[in-house]
Amino acid sequence: MECKKILTYFADMKDPRIERPNRHLMDDILFISIAAVLSGVESWDEMEKYGKTKLPWLETLLALPNGIPSHDTFNRFFAALDPNEFEDRFLKWVKSLC
To answer: Which of 94, 95, 97, 98 is nearest to 37 (CA)?
Structure first.
């Protein structure tokens, strides 16, 4: 999975989090989430565990200034995200693979 190529499809997406210092980069959250779901992860807890398990690999691809986001961070991020905006970009990425 090419991290930079995937993230280009989400580059113009608005970060849904409130204006305050965020500990985790949006790109990191998106990439970990996509990789985790493609690997069969089905919950926020599993997503955090996936990130921690894959940390050595993820560190070669992402900035991760504060490590792996918590399950609560993944949950809050996706709860605030515009699902149509995410779906549009995700489908464009998937179509580029075909």
So the answer is: 94
DSSP conformational letter for 68: S
How far apart are alpha carbons 21 and 3 in whole angstroms? Answer: 24
pLDDT tens digits, one per residue of 41-94 = 999 999 999 999 999 999 999 999 999 999 999 999 999 999 999 999 999 999
| DSSP class of 66 | T
User: Sign of the CA dihedral 55, 61, 25, 9?
Assistant: negative
Give the three-class secondary structure for 28: helix
Digit-coded pLDDT (tens) for 9-38: 999 999 998 777 789 999 999 999 999 999
d(CA 81, CA 88): 12
Closest CA relative to residue 25, chosen from 75, 54, 66: 66
